[in-house]
């Protein structure tokens, strides 16, 4: 297409509601697994933060294990004040360092609180076996609130830093209450009763945990964001007494007390207090593959959960009664190499940028890839099964890690959704610190021809309608960087 058509394409984009910089919602990106930023010596940690910044990330999720900070034992120690972050018995030293290094590294921390100390678990905890996890049994909402108050106070931006006299610890703006509360390893029991009389327990218990934690954090700083624990994407077809997984959409309905085809309010408990929703939309296959069970939710199924969330807002069972953001706080695909069960590095790169687009289209405003670098081949103690979703192959040190193709698509995601035979919707996230111009180009022989120029706003999102030409690839380009070429396909 000749260059003189650029103005027409920009005009068409504006008429179609796709004006550059006009998106109502941007998309922040970052990483969910924090081992690379916490478990190594200082030079390696600093190199990992540098790699994250180079990837264009703005957020790192830090896991705060409650039982690892609080004093141990079946009974809370006498004289211990759980609401006072300076109380003897708390051990914050390593986490202080992690928060300080994350903020100094130019990244915003989301702190995910999990696993209660023994003295804060509920009654009836079964004996330890392969279906139990310490800290997951009926965590006490009241004692969780006390811990959240202490944590929010310590990381309010005003608390003295013990390691740096005369200075204060950084502020944590976002707090996530638990991880995958619809899975038994994190919250138990999922169901109560026996046989055919099993009834959901976890959703409403978690509702009390979430509301109590939100109130405690907001009592310290009302501007802090409290997000629900990211839901795992798959559940069991039928309830199970042990090793249970509850489907995320069913869990959300019970959590927010909305049921039926029209998701109408039912009596099941007090409204839930929170500021943002979260999900972990892992997929079996690529990002366009829907879950088979209608109550499960992979990348293209985020709308199933969004429908429940919006119904809860209308019903007043999700408070405050306003439209809240949706975050995808874990995502990723293993690559081959290093594991035979992974997909090719090129496939991972393409799927990652397609997932960004589909999740944004489905309502997400934040997406976290699981890892920045692959884990050791043999794994780490307590390691999750998914270990090789990184943007870098692991070497002896992060500074010498070799990038995968997915580093390019994480930093500058760009797709063209083939809406019809001759039309496509271009979408991307510009790798700019602020608003910038983006040139969209079509492959022409051995070179590239400009087909549109659009402007990405401060939220980085840019969109345009473009004419397609057979199976020709497209790319997006700023003054400093070009995206990987992308061949249009229906998304």
In brief:
This protein is α/β, with parallel strands linked by helices. It has helices at residues 6-15, 35-38, 42-54, 66-69, 93-104, 141-154, 202-220, 248-256, 302-315, 345-362, 406-411; strands at residues 28-31, 59-65, 108-114, 174-177, 191-192, 199-200, 225-228, 258-259, 264-265, 272-273, 277-279, 318-319, 326-328, 364-369, 392-393, 402-403, 414-418, 423-429, 436-444, 447-456, 461-467, 474-477.
* Extended strand count: 22
Strand sequence of the main sheet, in spatial order? 7-4-3-2-1-14-13-11
Q: How many distinct domains?
A: 2
The whole-angstrom Rg is: 23 Å
Q: Kindly report how far apart the N and C termini lie.
A: 24 Å
Mean pLDDT across all residues, rounded? Answer: 92
Q: What is the structural class? A: alpha/beta
- The CATH topology assignment of the largest domain is TIM Barrel
Unreliable residue stretches: 1-23, 380-384
Q: What would CATH call the architecture of the largest domain?
A: Alpha-Beta Barrel
What is the topological layout?
Blueprint: H1 6-15, E1 28-31, H2 35-38, H3 42-54, E2 59-65, H4 66-69, H5 93-104, E3 108-114, H6 141-154, E4 174-177, E5 191-192, E6 199-200, H7 202-220, E7 225-228, H8 248-256, E8 258-259, E9 264-265, E10 272-273, E11 277-279, H9 302-315, E12 318-319, E13 326-328, H10 345-362, E14 364-369, E15 392-393, E16 402-403, H11 406-411, E17 414-418, E18 423-429, E19 436-444, E20 447-456, E21 461-467, E22 474-477
Helix pairs in contact: 6-7, 7-8, 8-9
What can you tell me about this protein's structure?
It is a single chain. This protein is α/β, with parallel strands linked by helices. It folds into two domains: 1-24 and 413-491, Immunoglobulin-like; 58-330, TIM Barrel (Alpha-Beta Barrel). The chain is built from eleven helices and 22 strands. It has an eight-stranded parallel sheet with strand order 7-4-3-2-1-14-13-11. A three-stranded antiparallel sheet has the order 17-18-21. A three-stranded antiparallel sheet has the order 20-19-22. Strand 17 and strand 18 (423-429) form a beta hairpin. Residues 1-23 and 380-384 have low confidence and may be disordered.
